[in-house]
## 1
Amino acid sequence: MASVETQVGHIWRRLGFGPLYSDIVNGSAMGTTALIDSLIDRPFVSFASAYPQGAGQLENDNARRLLELMCFGPNTRGSTTTVPEYNPVQERVTWMMQGLLIVGMDVVDLANMRDHILWLRNATRTTYKQLALDIARRPGMIRYLTGDQNVKGHPNENFARECMELFTIGRVDPISGTDNYTQQDVIEVARAVTGWRYNWNTHASSFDANLWDEGPKTFLGAARGAAGMPELFTAITGHPSYKHFVPSRIYKELTGLTATAQVLSELAFYWGTDGGILNTVRAICKRPEFLSDAAILNRTKSPVERITAATRFLGWPGLSYEPNLINLLWGMGQHPFYPPNVSGWPRGDQWLNTTSLQDWNQMSTLMCHQGFNSSGIVTGAICPTIETVYANATGNTVADYVTTRAGLRGITSQRTLDALTAYGKAGLWNRYRAAGVCNLLLMSPEFLAN
């Protein structure tokens, strides 16, 4: 069984975006159960703290701001706020919901995208039923899935189909394998959600009762009367698969394992009638498989996860201003505002492809060698961790030192340790060599796993 130190690193990778060294030390002292509770019980960070007034309206500025929040919370370099709180679970769950309740800037504009993410930040203090209902009525979702084209007499099926298939119950029940809905259900649900408008001048959504189909509808196995949007989500929460579909997604995200029928049946209690997101997260993290050896490093970091974890490890300040950051994210295949489709980003080893890894090599090199010129001479501020590694390690000790600081001690292969040591001893021990060792660590299989 993995050591407490290893389990603490795992908790921070799954409930946040990776540990600082202080997180490893403090978490090991308090124990894994207390650490899980302390992270889940951190205070909610408000909407106002997320995107401060005057933060800038450029797309790349907002993408960098999102990554700052994921790494450190509102009180980060470049922020105009003074709010000190950092809630890694809120950031992780928001990112999880961003990959589930999909809206993308290939269709919507920046105002819609900001609004969408700010509403997703509610996920840890509301139910999934309320969150999905709120998002369904926000301008981003209305525009993304052509809800503004869904009117009485001419139903548009986009939202109706994706709401059931991808957002709430799934095409088939994860336990029974039975079909959850029919094409007729899609048509009837589309009728229920007619009448929503999008204002291209104000970027706002609104409901126009004159465009709503007020006639009786039958869907998901029952007559629903003159159902509208609220009645749709009430019907969905009564469907047997509602207690299984989203919890199975959360379970996979947190453990890297596929939930069995028994696990889903047990999680249904915590999910409840309306969908208790945070209760379900806590229940999953208290299960023995969450901290099992089978769960540790069994997932592949996505590009966003690589950058956030590396930023935290290095103390890299470049999220606020690095001009190449967004282009390299594009190269790796994951701009946080542009999911490839309504199903979201790939989940798994698809991220271990040549193109993505080449761009990650450029990104990690840029991060680790900030403040050095091409000759290895320090010409500006370098990452705090590079300075710490240089001051406290040698070529002989650096492998153990950096893997410990990254929360990877005890689970790093001998091959990786040997490579780190060989590079550390290959020349004069200086800041530039310390940066090179950190760069090698960021390219290692252990760091690329989550």
Note: The CA atoms of residues 62 and 114 lie 8 Å apart.
## 2
Amino acid sequence: MRRLLPTYAEEVDLTVAYAYPVGRRWVRANMVSSVDGSAVAEGRSGGLSGEADKRVFAALRGLADVVLVGAGTARVEGYRAPRPKDAYADLRVAAGQRPAPALALVTSRLDLDPASPLFGGSEPTIVVTSRSSDPAARDRLAEVAEVIVAGEEHVDISGAIDRLADRGLSRVLCEGGPRLLGEVVASGSLDELCLTISPALVGGAGPRVLVGAALHGPSDIDLAHLLEEDGALFARYVLTRH
């Protein structure tokens, strides 16, 4: 993988290129899009992923404290609770991190199977929901996960991220889907977007990487780096705070 911007390099250390800022909470999103703007191919974001994208995906998880994802996306994409990876073990020990990132599932309906592979990882899965969710379902999931209640009628994403940080999970990696990312952006919580542009045309009416109400004016973002391999582009954008 080569770096095109801000300076050219033939080889890139992904753990250096995507290192989190030190000493502060940082919310990063990782999304993939076709050249024509679709966030899915045949209904799944995984349909747009290639080998290089999978390496970036693994590196971003290897650096994160917690992976934040919508429960629907986790089901469609076949998520499992993260496991420790030998390639990142020393790096995580040096950073004072747990062996693997925790998985945080955002859901209002709590329609999750406690026996699914989403639970039972090396770190307890976290279920993020609202107070209006079914108390019996919360109790059932509390047997296999840590349940965070944030918000009354709907999940308060900003509050949930605060609660994660209170647990020492300050390096947040949001993997979507597009509707959850829209809520993260609308709440003012997003610091960085890592966007893979897959060399593919999809067509159809698939979602963009961000779905939801229009923002109050476009967000200003700076291109921190641009990587390339086999025609796929890997852009890292940092949001500008005013």
Note: The chain has a mean pLDDT of 93.
